Amino acid sequence: MEKNSKLILTFISFIFLWSCANQIAPSGGEVDKIPPEVLETYPQNRAINFNDNHFDIKFSEYVDRLSVQNAIFISPSLKYGFEYNWSGKTLHLEFRDTLQQNTTYTITIGTDIVDLNNRNKLALPYTFTFSTGSKIDTAKISGKVYADSPSGIFIYAFKNKNDFNPETDKPNYISQVGNDGRFKLNGLSEGDYKIFALKDKSQDMFYNPNEDEFGIQSKKITIDSLNQIYDNLNIFLTKEDTISPRLSSAFMKDRNHILVEFNESIDSSKINSDNFYLFDSLSNKKINVNYFYKYDAKPKQFYIALGDSSSFQNYFLVAENIYDFCGNKTAEDKIQFLFKNEKDTLLIKPIKVFGEYENGKVDYEDPKVKIQFNDGIFLDEVNSRIKIEDNKKNNLIFSLNKIDDALFEIKLNNKLKQATDYYLFFDAKNLKNYSEKAIDTTYKFTFTTNSELEFTGASGKIIDDDSTTLIVNLKSVNNKKNYIKKIDKNKYFNFEKVTPDKYLLWAFKDKNKNDKYDFGKIKPFEYSEEFYFYPDTLNLRARWPVGDIDFNIKNK
């Protein structure tokens, strides 16, 4: 049946291409990198007293006809859409509905349209408006969606709807964002508006929770005779997650180690070995897990380690109270796996010692060092075997915290010297694995502190009349580094000890004072928090901090 379906689809595609023979692009020559453009439309932009039953769009080159049919929108929306007819590069669309009297309509030609020659996309959405009456609505809402790849994101506007549901309701107005994330909603009539950005994964024009990314406005938007233009509407995208994490696989590496994988990223800070156990449904036996750790496992994967399980017959791994990063909880889940009766040959040892800065360097003012093991080990065992010295063999006092059962953080009690080597020793004598084997050796690691000469900084003032708490973020362009400051009552900010790089500066109003950015909610509807980006990228170089930054968010 599947083979027949593929043949049918191939045949339909052949018929379509044959019927569109006049679209075939010439071969040879340079690679076409020029996007298609809209050359002209009928009616012209801002036409009034329109009473025809169709509109026309002329493109600069031949475009893929299937891509067009999913990329043309009319606002306010029509129940039955259009009929599509082509004449060369010109598209003729007939209305299947009767247009409303004295109404301004906006046609949006979206960025999903591609040319036939090299599938170049339309660079920016193209819009034009016309009115069936003697005047045209000129109100507009514009802004920017901040996303890694914003092209193709939809903007929906729901008018005078307190309880809108994008899962089932069609918007009154539709637009799309361009490659730079900017968007416009033109030809709006007076009323209250809910603005909703949607990355429509299934392209069904509706919001699908747990699948589509969405964004919501930060404040009430009203269009009236005195307020015809609303600019600078900034929107972040987020993804709703209401699904609890589940076990997706369990693979036994040897009789003492199991590699566990989940269907999504889990919050391992809320999980330890007590959240797991092995269960034999035939003998009703239970074995507790000794260790839970990440080490070199892939995303969504973790290791668990336990004592001998060879007495089991029917193997199940049970996980309890597992959380994801959205707070969704799985009370209990279980998965069956195949037993592997191989002995543990992994000798427990430290793999590396590193700090939080580039090249593993350690902060000299607040020194913290991480030590990574290749297998699970108890905290007290690690603590009793570590010694840290300076270059004069003076012992340094420290405290030890567990991140997971194979990764630990060492916090030194005192500041260290800048740009200086220190030495960590780990005595592995009689440190046995599950097979009672050990390496009788002492491991030595060198770690180096950084210096103030390696850093830069940024400081300035937020210009704003609002007294709402502001939180400022300094985020590297490559997303690898992010510094956060809650500004003082004088609205000054000062980022010190910043790693040199190119940075974006942005701030948000923390209305609920929870110290994090809130994206808003659809059900029940909640506004997002207002945010603003400083217009310039900051090129922060070592020893050359940038000061006196005036970050103006007033009246924006």
TrEMBL record:
Residues 32-132, 361-449 form the SbsA Ig-like domain. The keyword Signal applies. Keywords: Signal. InterPro entries: Cu-Rt/internalin_Ig-like (IPR014755), SbsA_Ig (IPR032812). This is Ig-like domain-containing protein. It comes from Stygiobacter electus. Gene3D superfamilies: 2.60.40.1220. Residues 1-24 form the signal peptide. The keyword Signal applies.
